[in-house]
């Protein structure tokens, strides 16, 4: 069976969506393909996110990821928005979910870590839904 493509979206594609892409690849690559994108881009992935993902998971997001626009990723089957508090990006898909996560940019490591742990849990929950066929 073909693995569904999951797009993790937020406006700038520099923090939460990048973390979700990295954790999707790390935790659930056997269940779905992970991508991230935004309506705008930043020159670099959020450096606190990069540092904490290296510390917590030994994942160097800057090796394989960069800030991308929606047009740079394949057509998604599943779209996950991060909770943009503005107009989240909209692209066609079979299933859409909003995770309602506050942007930890500029906050301390404790807040950042909470967001990373929440994304970790959400990725595992999404993988369960995909495996059980709930999203088809």
Automatic annotation (TrEMBL):
Any one Pfam family match given in the protein's UniProt record, by short name: LMWPc
Domain of life of the source: Bacteria
SMART domains given in the database record: LMWPc (SM00226)
Listed CDD domains: LMWP_ArsC
InterPro entries: Ptyr_pPase, Ptyr_pPase_sf
Keywords: Arsenical resistance
Domain Phosphotyrosine protein phosphatase I: 4-129
PANTHER family in the cross-refs: ARSENATE REDUCTASE
Official protein name in the record: Arsenate reductase ArsC
Species per Swiss-Prot/TrEMBL record: Blautia hansenii
UniProt lineage: Bacteria, Bacillati, Bacillota, Clostridia, Lachnospirales
